[in-house]
Amino acid sequence: MSGSGAAPGPSSGSSPAACRFAHYFVLCGIDADSGLEPDELAVLYQWLEADRHGKSQGAANTTSGENFDQSPLRRTFKSKVLAHYPQNIEWNPFDQDAVNMLCMPKGLSFRTQTDNKDPQFHSFIITREDGSRTYGFVLTFYEEVTSKQICTAMQTLYQMHNAEHYSSVYASSSCSMDSLASSLDEGDTTSLLKLQRYNSYDISRDTLYVSKSICLITPLPFMQACKKFLIQLYKAVTSQQPPPLPLESYIHNILYEVPLPPPGRSLKFYGVYEPVICQRPGPSELPLSDYPLREAFELLGLENLVQVFTCVLLEMQILLYSQDYQRLMTVAEGITTLLFPFQWQHVYVPILPASLLHFLDAPVPYLMGLQSKEGTDRSKLELPQEANLCFVDIDNHFIELPEEFPQFPNKVDFIQELSEVLVQFGIPPEGSLHCSESTGKLKNMVMKDLVNDKKNGNVCTNNISMYELLKGNETIARLQALAKRTGVAVEKMDLSASLGEKDKDLKLHCEEAELRDYQLNVQLREVFANRFTQMFADYEAFVIQTAQDMESWLTNREQMQNFDKASFLSDQPEPYLPFLSRFIETQMFATFIDNKIMSQWEEKDPLLRVFDTRIDKIRLYNVRAPTLRTSIYQKCSTLKEAAQSIEQRLMKMDHTAIHPHLLDMKIGQGKYEQGFFPKLQSDVLATGPTNNNRWVSRSATAQRRKERLRQHSEHVGLDNDLREVCGLPAWGASQQAP
């Protein structure tokens, strides 16, 4: 399975539908007609676990699928895809079994009125055979069970459970009934009654609830936007007042009328109650990553995360462990996005279904996530006895590292630079579990100083010396000398007034905390990317390109040496060698070099293109001989620029999607009933509009106008600067938000 990187399909598809923001809307839950069906895969997993631990398998009856030793409310029942819209997309076929398993990895969950029923959000990834990805975003909530058949079935299961439990208690006593009574008098009676009340269900007094999931499947990982949209759908279902429009209107809108934002642009579309914002990096920026690195660093701590990151780079076996599915995804996606310009090339399953636990015994590199059961002692988890296994207990802020592995180059300086970025955003480098009162005060202080100034902490509002600001610029120096000779004083100027006036015309289209998460994400990624840019600034000099054409190269790929490893290592600083000597043997580095060689015959890989551009900038601003390698740490110099790019995109929307609107629905459909997700009218959601896809037509019109202007510019021989003024962007002015 392939690692990071966005699926190539949406950007390359010629069909307008290939550019849609979302491909599918999915509803998973209980099939009232089928009733309660035990999840056979989960039961098989329990049987295998019992076998691995040498326990009796009688508790798990694999024939009937019942487990009388476990409370029925805690058993696993089979879920089903109740509906999905549209039915199928040619370039992204709907995989019902995979989506059902990943939307509800534990199957159906039941609760009563005494249990916690807060909705839970998680995401997942489906990697296709060609290495491209599809992303799923899921909100799971609980609905009251109205089927008397299912309620009666649950009551029956409890009666059988209690009878089995009483029988086991009775059988465990080798005494007579008198001795059993005496033992119960010693306190077992009270314990038994408490046990029966806990996780119990009585159809006459309890209300039964069952889990249901709503899901968006998208070509790109716009996690924050999808989460907001799904939460608004859920609020509309649970609100006392019906939503402004039937839910079909909002689902139809996001499926067929909301486009993917082009690279380097921002997009606003509408949920049930408020707009949703997303932005996409430009072609020269780091690729899209919407999972909050803040959470990954808070969960693991900086030191632990860098260690796990090093294990991933060296392609070891990485097992993530947490009760929370979304934590597994956040850490997995966070670490893999930091690999730029490299990509994880091996098994990547951030959420491993229980039925696939045997995958952990595979003798290959993998990055997998395993859900821990509530109350389970981690010491009882049997892990594969592999010397290169990195075990990451996310919930307990703990990692177990392989026996021997080299440290990341300049690790101390690297961690120090990352710490400075985290502290600037008020995040303790040691992680949230060790966050003391002092670090909380630090966070408040930083937020006050850096957020309230409305300038991202980049420019002080006090008067500043213009000469100090531009010191080192020879042109400014000459102008200042000329000004002094003519008697003109260049001292200080107040930037706060002018900047303040400018800010009045701009309005941030997202929450301040959301902007800061975006900026923290990109600044942390820039620090990681800068390390690779510095370490591999001269990698091209060691690439061996002997083939004359792509066909001969592909034919002899396995027998050819594509990279002069010995010469490269001899050119590196001594402290780097333990790490680099192992890293250049990995599959991710080999693929990186393969992509470089392939770029002479076909379009360059997007990640490689961005990386090579950064190397060119280093050569432009920091001229040095390739042989003069040094281990002196060079900090990242692009942090402010990267943060400002995101802020500018969120200050002015490049495109506003069509508002949700009434659809041609049948009378009586879309009926609102508080607390229940409605049965959607499938005919209006099966296909999109035929002649009403305005964003496609406007985009095509803008493209034609751009082409005409380009041809005209070439004809009259305009200079480059004037062409930039005349050239239209891919999205016309009519699409921009006011």
Automatic annotation (TrEMBL):
Name all UDENN domain ranges: 61-603
Mention one GO molecular function: small GTPase binding
Q: Which InterPro entries match?
A: cDENN_dom, dDENN_dom, DEN5A/B, DENN_C, Tripartite_DENN, uDENN_dom
Keyword line = Guanine-nucleotide releasing factor
List each coiled-coil range. none
Tell me where the transmembrane regions lie.
none
The name this protein carries in UniProt is: DENN domain containing 5B
